[in-house]
Amino acid sequence: MTDAAEPKPDPELTVTGRRRRSLRSSTAIMAAGTGTSRILGLVRNAMLIAAIGANAPAANAYDIANKLPNAMFAILAAGVLNAALVPQIVKAFQRKGGERTVDRILTVGGVLTLGATIVLTLSAQLWVVLYTRDWPPEMIALATAFAFWCIPQLFFYGLYTLVGEVLNAREQFGWFMWAPVLNNVVAIAGLGAYLVLFGPFDAASPVDPEDWTAGAIALVGGVATLGVASQALILIIPMVRGGYRWHWRWRGPKGELTTIGRIAGWALAAVLVEQVAVLLTTQVAAAANPDGSELDIAGNAAYFYALSLYLVPHSLVTVSIATAMYTAMARHAASDDVASLRADLSRGLRSVGVFTVFATVAMIVMAPYVVRVVYPTTKPAEAASITEVLIAMLLGLVPLGATVLFKRMYFVLEDARSIFYMHIPMAIAWVGVAYGVMALTEPRWWTVGVGLGLAASNWVGVILRAGGLRRRLDGLDGRRVLVTHGKALLAAGAAGGIGWLLLQLAPPASELTGVPGAGVSLLIVMGVGTAMIAVYAAGLWALRVREARDAAAPLLRRLGRR
């Protein structure tokens, strides 16, 4: 009687529920860390604009220098490590004696990254020339001086990724996402010192490239590298506390790293293709305003500031969800559990889509005011140039979220080869659109064309990767995913319409200048944003979008208890 009256819960549903709660919990921790880091990063960028401007010569020179370690890291480490490490480290920790393999991965990866950092730093000027176009000698010299201080970040980015992937494989997610907070704190302190010692940027009389002193260059570039070093070194603490202690191991059993080498080789090839596109499109942006004399023309620095805003919603949700799911996906792949892999991917696509669809609409509607809030010291012409690039990029935000999840799935399936072949048409789309706009329009629109090319590349990538995985996973639960995205688009469209109507009552963003204007813009963004969120949430609820209900469930339970 008791069993009949109180049926036992379905074990599969119980496990699924635990997985969903675990995913929400891990995602929330990482999103909080990423959110804090991104906010501080935007503060850092605002202070950087206050120090060296947005479209000024020094701004473009520093942007190229600081871009180099990121591009080099992507070529030498990021794609390779993300492709190979997590799946292989998860497998290593699951078998007896697997820590030896992890020791060897960290040893070999660390040594190779250090060697590459030394060589690339010594050849700094070559890389500056390669990434620019039509720059005068004094601009090349200033960017090279910054690069000598910035390129050493490459080693610390490598260390951060190596140690961070060990933490992720052991499901110690929080530290990896919170460590960049320290990076931004150090950078903000350094820029604060610069503003005290050298004063803020003056658009009426900007410092010529040849007049920059060694001390000013060292403070701006050196503090940036110190921040990255802090971000990497702090991860050693949780790694040791978590029970793993690294030991030097250069050699090991024959064939131990064969799988990693094979996957890493194809991943490296894919990243090389992507970085060729980055190089070519950076040349377009750098050529738009080579001497920084036109404040209303977006150059490579304005592109960076727009990209920083564009990546905020992506980093907050997509990266957090993908990172939290990656370890579980690797386990399912190791056990050939295709059904669970398909379910993981479907849940991730739906959860990410509900957020990115709204983020796209909301940020496009409020873009001029968001730029004014985040970069209060920019002149109206500079803010407008950043806004135009941002809106172009936002057209590819939704497919960006999906492509990241698809890419992680290919990696857990140990199929980096397909990623390589798909990167070729993606790179062609990006470069083709950028150079097409460059050929057909005036320089003001060249950097906007780079943003449009990035959006086009994301759409090409999502179509190709979805098609490939559909065959590998015997379907993608596509109908359910598309229905969720369609409902989200309907609700976001209604929210966007309300937001646009409300903004007609606000003063134009171009009239809101300086810190007071940023304060007014903040109030506008908060008020209009709140109204849009309310309309969007109501729309999702009315359309019975389960992902929205799952996200709201913890809050509703807490309110119920109160």
Automatic annotation (TrEMBL):
<protein>
    <recommendedName>
        <fullName>Peptidoglycan lipid II flippase</fullName>
    </recommendedName>
</protein>
<dbReference type="InterPro" id="IPR004268">
    <property type="entry name" value="MurJ"/>
</dbReference>
<dbReference type="Pfam" id="PF03023">
    <property type="entry name" value="MurJ"/>
</dbReference>
<keyword id="KW-0812">Transmembrane</keyword>
<feature type="transmembrane region" description="Helical">
    <location>
        <begin position="418"/>
        <end position="439"/>
    </location>
</feature>
<keyword id="KW-1133">Transmembrane helix</keyword>
<feature type="transmembrane region" description="Helical">
    <location>
        <begin position="105"/>
        <end position="128"/>
    </location>
</feature>
<feature type="transmembrane region" description="Helical">
    <location>
        <begin position="488"/>
        <end position="506"/>
    </location>
</feature>
<feature type="transmembrane region" description="Helical">
    <location>
        <begin position="175"/>
        <end position="197"/>
    </location>
</feature>
<feature type="transmembrane region" description="Helical">
    <location>
        <begin position="260"/>
        <end position="282"/>
    </location>
</feature>
<dbReference type="GO" id="GO:0034204">
    <property type="term" value="P:lipid translocation"/>
</dbReference>
<dbReference type="GO" id="GO:0009252">
    <property type="term" value="P:peptidoglycan biosynthetic process"/>
</dbReference>
<dbReference type="GO" id="GO:0015648">
    <property type="term" value="F:lipid-linked peptidoglycan transporter activity"/>
</dbReference>
<keyword id="KW-1003">Cell membrane</keyword>
<feature type="transmembrane region" description="Helical">
    <location>
        <begin position="72"/>
        <end position="93"/>
    </location>
</feature>
<feature type="compositionally biased region" description="Basic and acidic residues">
    <location>
        <begin position="1"/>
        <end position="11"/>
    </location>
</feature>
<feature type="transmembrane region" description="Helical">
    <location>
        <begin position="518"/>
        <end position="543"/>
    </location>
</feature>
<feature type="transmembrane region" description="Helical">
    <location>
        <begin position="140"/>
        <end position="163"/>
    </location>
</feature>
<dbReference type="GO" id="GO:0005886">
    <property type="term" value="C:plasma membrane"/>
</dbReference>
<feature type="region of interest" description="Disordered">
    <location>
        <begin position="1"/>
        <end position="21"/>
    </location>
</feature>
<feature type="transmembrane region" description="Helical">
    <location>
        <begin position="383"/>
        <end position="406"/>
    </location>
</feature>
<feature type="transmembrane region" description="Helical">
    <location>
        <begin position="302"/>
        <end position="328"/>
    </location>
</feature>
<feature type="transmembrane region" description="Helical">
    <location>
        <begin position="217"/>
        <end position="240"/>
    </location>
</feature>
<feature type="transmembrane region" description="Helical">
    <location>
        <begin position="28"/>
        <end position="52"/>
    </location>
</feature>
<keyword id="KW-0573">Peptidoglycan synthesis</keyword>
<feature type="transmembrane region" description="Helical">
    <location>
        <begin position="445"/>
        <end position="467"/>
    </location>
</feature>
<dbReference type="InterPro" id="IPR051050">
    <property type="entry name" value="Lipid_II_flippase_MurJ/MviN"/>
</dbReference>
<keyword id="KW-0133">Cell shape</keyword>
<dbReference type="GO" id="GO:0008360">
    <property type="term" value="P:regulation of cell shape"/>
</dbReference>
<keyword id="KW-0472">Membrane</keyword>
<feature type="transmembrane region" description="Helical">
    <location>
        <begin position="349"/>
        <end position="371"/>
    </location>
</feature>
